[in-house]
Design a protein that fits this description.
CATH superfamily of the largest domain: Type I PLP-dependent aspartate aminotransferase-like (Major domain)
Helix content: 25-40%
CATH class of the largest domain: Alpha Beta
Distance between the termini: 32 Å
Shape: globular
Number of helices: 14
Oligomer: single chain
Strand order of the largest sheet: 2-8-7-6-5-3-4
Length: 427
């Protein structure tokens, strides 16, 4: 790890040497507070790229000019609008273009994918997930199990950390997969846990699941745009993610889905069909009998939500410029600087307040998030941060989630977060 110093001058020197520093100016930093806002909740809602207005305005202008004819005659014809995003999204998640599509919303996409890939038969009925998964995932999984007439208390296996620990041990995940064996139909885990920020070993989990004959899928809500993903190389069967967190594409923004190319030409797979997943060469003949498009596009239901996709396109252009490798290099430094400051504060004030980082310490097991278990001050410290313009995330009983996002957070932001924490401890 770099030799860090907890001072404003040191933070400003790190910012001056940052090759990505100019990208901060391409986002709107919130101005709602009387003090300068230090925004650390890109893991919940990313900031707005300034270019979004131009992209969305183009579609509003074409709507005004063309009306319905904009589907074919606008500058960016809406008929094929999702295709403008495909290659860029594929690069973000490490997939082949035909393996990805942008459509619908995250939980909708997870349901659509599980219709095809959770197919309980005989004794192979179980789904393995995290006990501390995001609630929407748990609700979706429970309902899928019930949809097949099965019992979530039996067929949904939720793996929790060991007593007294916050993280899932990778050996425990792999051991549980092996233990479930031929009763396991599906592994469906968050690639990055929303609460702890733990990056799961997706290649190892995929390999282990396949070894016992199970399908393996991931919710990448906290991983897409945050982690250098290689879904195709890792042989993952399916995945879905939202675009409004690290991908900065607006509240409730569209979702992406990935389906491995081995399923590209499988019209026999059960699926809930809609007309935008129908072979586009003959779609407008509107004939009965569903004929899916090749690849992930075959899981689409409806035509593109163009205004939301326009915002996503603007953000993806930035990702294409930077690349996930350079983003992750800054993530390591920026998150490491935050970790250093928290450790220094704990060493200095441990009798008054101690920060226990429950996110993995290893840089290869996390992204741009640290979850901080606060011993000693709790909500009062969080409220003091908020009063100083820091936007972070509070989770009961006493966890503060902080996401130092490499595109728009600075080392100076991190320094001031530490400074305000120290003031709160002393106050």
């Amino acid at each position: 790890m770099a030799e860090f110093v907890n001072s404003l001058a040191a933070a400003q020197a790190l910012d001056a040497a940052d090759p990505l520093k100019s990208y901060r100016d391409r986002f709107y930093i919130p101005t709602f507070h009387e003090k300068a806002v230090r925004y650390f909740t890109g893991n919940s809602l990313g900031l707005q790229p300034k270019s979004v207005q131009t992209y969305v305005q183009q579609e509003l202008d074409d709507w005004a000019k063309w009306g319905v004819e904009g589907h074919f005659h606008g500058k960016n014809p809406w008929f094929s609008y999702h295709e403008f995003l495909t290659e860029k999204v594929a690069r973000v998640v490490g997939a082949l273009p035909k393996e990805v599509v942008v459509t619908h919303s995250l939980t909708t996409n997870l349901h659509l994918l599980m219709v095809s890939f959770y197919r309980p038969v005989g004794t192979r009925t179980k789904i393995l997930c995290e006990a501390k998964a995001f609630p929407s995932d748990l609700y979706a999984l429970e309902s899928q199990v019930r949809f097949h007439g099965l019992n979530p208390d039996v067929d949904l296996v939720a793996l929790a950390p060991r007593d007294g620990e916050h993280l899932l041990r990778e050996e425990d995940v792999l051991a549980k997969i092996a233990e479930l064996g031929d009763t396991l139909a599906l592994v469906m885990i968050g690639g990055v846990n929303y609460y702890t920020g733990q990056l799961m070993d997706m290649p190892a989990i995929t390999k282990a699941g396949h070894a016992v004959g199970a399908i393996v899928g991931f919710d990448l809500a906290h991983a897409a745009g945050n982690i250098h993903l290689k879904l195709h190389e890792w042989d993952v069967d399916f995945a879905a993610w939202c675009s409004y967190k690290y991908l900065n594409s607006g509240p409730g923004g569209v979702s992406g889905m990935y389906v491995h190319e081995r399923f590209a030409n499988r019209p026999d797979l059960p699926r809930f069909a809609g007309w935008w997943g129908y072979d586009k060469a003959t779609r407008f003949q509107m004939e009965p009998g569903f004929k899916p498009m090749e690849g992930a596009e075959g899981w689409q239901l409806s035509n593109a939500p163009v205004l939301s996709m326009a915002a996503h396109w603007a953000s993806l252009e930035i990702y294409d410029e930077v690349g996930m490798e350079r983003l992750n290099e800054k993530t390591v430094l920026l998150t490491g600087y935050l970790e250093f400051i928290l450790d220094e504060l704990t060493a200095k004030y441990q009798d008054q307040c101690r920060f226990e980082i429950i996110t993995p310490r290893e840089k290869t097991r996390r992204g741009a998030q640290l979850s901080i278990l606060v011993h000693g001050k709790g909500k009062a410290l969080f409220d003091a941060l908020s009063a100083n313009g820091v936007v972070a995330d509070w989770r009961e009983p006493n966890v503060i989630r902080v996401a130092p996002v490499p595109l728009y957070n600075s080392f100076e932001d991190v320094y001031y977060l530490g400074k305000f924490m120290e003031e709160a401890i002393l106050g």
